[in-house]
Amino acid sequence: MPLQIFPTPQDAEAAFYEALERTDLELMMAVWSEDEEIVCVHPGGPRLAGQDQVRESWRQIFASGAAARLHVTKQVAISGAMVAVHSVHENFSGPGESGPMQAVVATNVYLRTAAGWRMVAHHGSPAPGTAEPPPASPKILH
Amino acid sequence: MPLQIFPTPQDAEAAFYEALERTDLELMMAVWSEDEEIVCVHPGGPRLAGQDQVRESWRQIFASGAAARLHVTKQVAISGAMVAVHSVHENFSGPGESGPMQAVVATNVYLRTAAGWRMVAHHGSPAPGTAEPPPASPKILH
Q: Which residue does chain A place closest to B88, by CA atoms?
């Protein structure tokens, strides 16, 4: 059973980045479609396809490091009745770090399913230039 | 006016890679949606959005180099009535080169529009490992 229903693509995306920031594997996989046709490319990584590869990659990422602070900027959204494509910059900073780190440019694709909006594709790659500094106020994902 | 109508996402994708291989800017832009909400990330590059940025990037790429031989492998397709997401490996080899070059993993998103299927997002990034060698027989894009 899915943990959550996401009524909009923005809800699914908020949960995706919350899961990433909290290193919460169950929430992360609740964002993804339950179909086998899902694809994920982590920055610098190979193309992963299917539930097993995608889940295992997030498990390893979450097992290997502390949670990062993250704020998402520069969203461009392509929106339809059944599909949403979001292009964003992911700006990470490590625990205790205040300076900007390398940003990631990500393409996120969501489909409207019987169980709400779900991610079917995530493609991240290092963005040239420097990440934006984190906001001075408490972080707001969206 | 669009140069061509693409009745299926595969037709649009075949034209995309034909345009890339032939460095044909008009065909390339005929594949893209005419909306402003289009996004393109070239391997190692920044996120580009909108007609002007996307067209200008392809113009520069096509102006800077000779056509490359290209074959596309390992397609994973997520297909709906109005959307198609294709994940592929792009295997390039330069003119006169027979050996494999670095592959690119690409996420291509197509929407069904009133003018046939059109690309709305392309995200490419270097794929770890080595590209597959080109086929011995004359290249077939699909």
A: A47
Distances in Å between the Cα of B106 and the Cα atoms of A18, A64, A74, B94, B124 are 26, 26, 21, 19, 4
pLDDT score, position B5: 95
**Inter-chain contact A41–B125, Cβ cutoff 8 Å?**
yes
What mean pLDDT is predicted for residues B60-65? 91
User: What are the CA-CA distances from residue A26 to residues A14, A58, B2 (Å)?
Assistant: 15, 10, 45
Question: Would the CB atoms of A82 and B83 count as touching at under 8 Å?
Answer: yes
Across chain B, where does the E strand assignment appear? 39-41, 47-49, 69-79, 83-93, 103-113, 116-126
Whether A43 and chain B come into contact, CB under 8 Å, resolves to: yes
Average pLDDT of chain A is: 88
CATH 3.10.450.50 fits A9-126, yes or no: yes
Calculate the CA dihedral of residues B48, B70, A46, A50 and round it to 10 degrees.
100
Domain boundaries, chain A: 9-126
Q: Which residues of B75-86 are buried (b: 16+ CB within 10 A; e: fewer)?
A: ebebebeebbbb
Neighbours of A132 (CB within 10 A): 13
* B102-125 pLDDT per residue, tens: 799 999 999 999 999 999 999 999
Distance from CA of A23 to the nearest CA of B (A): 24
Measured torsion, CA atoms of residues B10, B12, B18, B19, in degrees rounded to the nearest 10: -160
Cβ pair B57, B82 in contact under 8 A: no
CA A50 to CA A67: how far, in whole Å? 25
- Nearest CB to B121 within list A37, A80, A85: A85
Tokens of A106: 């990500």
Nearest CA in chain A to B128: A46
